[in-house]
Amino acid sequence: MDPSSSPSSDNKTVVTSSHLSDMATAGQSSGKYYENLDAEVAGKIQRKVGLIYDETMCKHDTPDGEDHPECPDRIRVIWEKLQLAGVSQRCVVLGSSKAEDKHLQLVHTKDHVNLVKTISTKQKDYRRNKIASQLNSIYLNGGSSEAAYLAAGSVVKVAEKVAEGELDSGFAIVRPPGHHAETDEAMGFCLFNNVAVAASYLLNERPDLGVKKILIVDWDVHHGNGTQKMFWKDPRVLFFSVHRHEYGSFYPSGDDGDYNMVGEGPGEGFNINVPWDQGRCGDADYLAAWDHILIPVAREFNPDIILLSAGFDAAIGDPLGGCRVTPYGYSVMLKKLMEFTHGKIVMALEGGYNLDSIAKSSLACVQVLLEDKIIQGSSEAYPFESTWPVIQAVRKRLCAYWPSLADELSWKLINQKIPNPIILISSSDSETEDDPHGLVYQISKLSIENHQVDTASTSWRADLAKVDIWYASFGSNMWKPRFLCYIQGGQVDGLKKACVGSMDKSPPKEIVWETFPHRLFFGREYTARWGVGGVAFTNPLANLNDQTQMCLYRITLEQFNDVLCQENALNLDSDSAIFDLAALQSAENQISILPEAVSLVCKCCLVGEKRRHSHTYNDLHAFCC
Ligand code: Q9C
Ligand code: ZN
């Protein structure tokens, strides 16, 4: 916790710090969530990436125009994004195709195919509404049949071209989505199971293409119940789904998405579910599932092609998903799949309901398929603590079929702490160019000069109350309800006991989610000044290419003091601040300071306690003394 800064004439530095005592080694042992997977573009033959988009699929809409998350604009915004970014122009754009009934009937009953086919033709709205009302989460209109046929047919077409080798990979930007659709039932916004139809087509109708083993990866935030059932007993298809499950309470609810559901008969072991017990999962959780389940299994399975049920409703900002996967996270997940099948990957859109998120995530993925330089970014450093038990349970349940899952995960890996909040305090005037959102500028304007703090004063609270700071955190740790407990008091899920809150219970003046230019140096295990423990500094102006999503709370230095006290189990009603106010002030007075030169000393150390404490949350001692 280090509110300090090192202003210099030409280079404003916002110093942030957090306890990072095990961060330096974590990067190596945990699968390197900060790694850069730059693809060498120069000298490479451009990969052929197919795209299908057809405005006709926008005609599927709610019958009387009410709002619905699964809306026509979903595919429009993706298509527009790819065009605006100049990416679609470098792809092979194919016309859409209607699925053939005989292909649909590889996975669906004749009745179901007929139902979907006849929805639009002869029936009136009220008839359609009646049918829809008997289904789970389905609306139907006059455009539904055609859209459903085009969605399924387009995924089949891209899959065929990729399997033939005419394309290296492709993305079918389709709706309605497919993965909830079962053999004889539409549900969950899905009419035909587009990906399952394509998989079955390759396996059963096109033996000439030599596709014998298919890996279906379903990263939609919901369980792919339909796809699971269709290949339940089929060892030719390895189905992997990662989804919110919450003990069966999350849509589509029930036990189907449980990790015990591994397939049956010859298909036993060829169905893998990674069921999150909670929302809010982000890049680190997904990448942990990749590194410790999917990737090793895929290596053993050695598929001929990968079909990706690419819903983007686990994306940050999604109104239904509640998770926090960033475009960067998606791009890394996809990149990791490119090692297989010579990159033969067929992406099909499933869910995803935040238009901005799905457009950005889609763009990031197509750039991976094109083997562009991967977008810059970084993820929260660690998965949630609750993620490891899930991953361990999945590995244990499936290790009989996949020996690469048999080893126990190392203690070191699973006991990594989630990253601490990062504290930003800035002073100094600064340049404001290259800061379109104005956030860096705003931060730079937060100054503690003119707020002389009197170390001898008993009115330290009044002094600190005059100073605003930005408290920043990576998403998963100080999520808003939790952070608000530290300010306003109370207890939410994940807090061991209730917080008393800050003395000043006024809510943060601003709460901003921002993709923030930053650079983190998590590099130190020891600094002369701060002793054992890592530190992190950000230099937003010098490293504009590095981006991370952070949540920033504008609070007063007094509130910050109280947050720290609560995190470290110290009393609030103390007669001094947790900070060394003299250090804070002298930091302010220096013109150019090396980060190491600035330090705030925590109270336990001021009273002569030299032993390193083991606070579960904020090991303040990691960087004081
Ligand atoms: N209580 C896809 O993402 N939610 N489908 C219904 C009823 C349905 C999501 C909630 C969510 C379906 C493809
Ligand atoms: Zn979904």
Automatic annotation (TrEMBL):
It is an enzyme of class 3 (hydrolase). Its EC number is 3.5.1.98. One of its GO terms (biological process) is epigenetic regulation of gene expression. It catalyses: N(6)-acetyl-L-lysyl-[histone] + H2O = L-lysyl-[histone] + acetate. Its cofactor is Zn(2+). GO terms for molecular function: histone deacetylase activity, hydrolytic mechanism; metal ion binding. It comes from the Eukaryota. Keywords: Chromatin regulator, Hydrolase, Metal-binding, Nucleus, Repressor, Transcription, Transcription regulation, Zinc. InterPro entries: HDACs, His_deacetylse_dom, His_deacetylse_dom_sf, Ureohydrolase_dom_sf. Pfam families: Hist_deacetyl. It is found in: Nucleus. GO terms for cellular component: cytoplasm; histone deacetylase complex. Residues 68-368 form the Histone deacetylase domain. Residues 1-26 are annotated as: Disordered. Its main location: nucleus. The keyword Lyase does not apply. The keyword Protease does not apply. Belongs to the histone deacetylase family. HD type 2 subfamily. This is histone deacetylase. It comes from Capsella rubella. The lineage of its organism: Eukaryota, Viridiplantae, Streptophyta, Embryophyta, Tracheophyta.
